[in-house]
Write a structure and sequence with these properties.
The complex is a heterodimer of chains A (about 180) and B (about 120).
Chain A: H1 5-26, E1 45-48, E2 55-57, E3 66-71, H2 78-89, E4 95-101, H3 105-115, E5 121-125, H4 129-133, E6 141-145, E7 151-155, H5 161-178
Parallel strand pairs in A: 3-4, 4-5
Antiparallel strand pairs in A: 1-2, 1-5, 3-6, 6-7
Chain B: H1 4-21, H2 27-37, H3 56-70, H4 75-86, H5 100-123
Classes of the chains: A alpha/beta (about 180), B mainly alpha (about 120).
Chain lengths: ~180, ~120
Amino acid sequence: MRFSIWKVLPVILLSLLSILLYKGLSKDDRYTSVSMINKPFPNFYEYDLQRLSKVITREDLLGFTTLVHVWSSSCNSCSKDNAFLLKLAKNKKIKLVGINYIDDREAALDFLNAYGNPYSKIIFDASGNLSMNIGAYGVPETYVVDRKGVVRYKVSSGLNDSVLKDKILPIIYWLKKHDS
Amino acid sequence: MIPSSNIKAMVLLFLTCVVIRASDFSFSDEVRYQSLIREFRCLACQNQSLVDSRMPFAFNLRQQIYSKVGDGATNKSIREYVVSRYGNAASYNYAIDYSYFILILSPFILLFVMAYLFFKRIIK
């Protein structure tokens, strides 16, 4: 039998195509809005979820490395994230600020009673405009904001150990060292 | 024959519509708003446009665009506003990336190659 490239080529092409398609199966092709990174956190003027008489502004984020977490009592994975944040809250060097995205206030407070409150402050974003202004498109989302109020990192999904250890904590430690 | 009370009701209904339309949102603003929200992708459900989406985030963005159009912001500044938050991918007609030309042209290249092979065989 004579060797012919035309007999082998389709097999090679097909296997290459299968590899390509197989890889495509596990690829996450949702776009992430990284465009807010290294931009200043937008100005805002919103009520405190726990005390509606108080107002929280951008000034409250300054001076600390802050982890801003967008959550809502109606989201499933937020309770899981809450457990991670409670662990993080023991680390006194990080300030945790929550943004409660369009929520029933009572439901949000019940959520905190049930799962614990890791935040030092919770912004009551009743209109959802603040969350939109920082480029969020789902709950939960987490932002690392440095001392000067610049967004440094963003996780647009739930938290887990590997994201925390490999992404968030190194950035926070780097900021601690270089950003004083 | 329509009873006169019904006619009165219809006239009233028509008048309320006129009153609602007579806000500072003019007809051209409405057209501009409608075309703008068709230009953007929904943020979470990415195969839908902003018009289709029932996501609360899409609702917020529509509201924001609506108020910006009402304030007289230009189309360009509104596009910049959305793209600065959600990136180029949030817009359906973003700037042309030349690396896509291979993708667009590949069917035609393939067609020419096939046609060449086909006619070569026929001529033989």
